[in-house]
Amino acid sequence: MFRQLIPLLTALTIAAVAYAVREQRRRRMRIAPPQPQITMREISEAPALLEIEKSCLAAADPRAAFRRAALQTAVGALYLEAIAECGVPDTAEMRQAYTQTWQSLREYQRLKYDDAAPDDWFDHFMRVARPYIREKVRLTREFALHLDEGAERFARIYDELLEELFHEAMTAPQKKTFVPPDFSHS
Hints:
The chain is mainly α. The protein has one domain. Helix 3 runs antiparallel to helix 4 and helix 5 runs antiparallel to helix 6. The longest helix has 28 residues.
């Protein structure tokens, strides 16, 4: 008699596990902003951030506008980081301002739109864009110093790669997680 119940118990166990996994994923992917009424002034008094908030809230899709603003300021910070690595002085203060701006925008997105999670579209963008920008700055510097046209062409390729990465980040679903890229082979 017990032997006849084994297939039924196995099927019920598999169904219970599948349900639990599906329910856990549904809860994790559910969009539930912690503070949808928050204003930027509650996060930062920086005039630049208040202006960004004003222009983004006036956009047709404010969430996408805030995402774009966070990416653009992060790109600025990454360029300043790469330029500083080339030995250009006096970039630390400006880089810090850009970094604080994108960090504040990310916090605002998390609280107002539930559009920030670990290993999400932004973290993926930062991980992949950093070496792209570093290499583009190196190639641009090489072109400027040695008038190497090959370096200029490669720098343009990195522009295209960054544009594709930017578009991917803009269209990524909320709360989608990305596997960190493997740069061990490079």
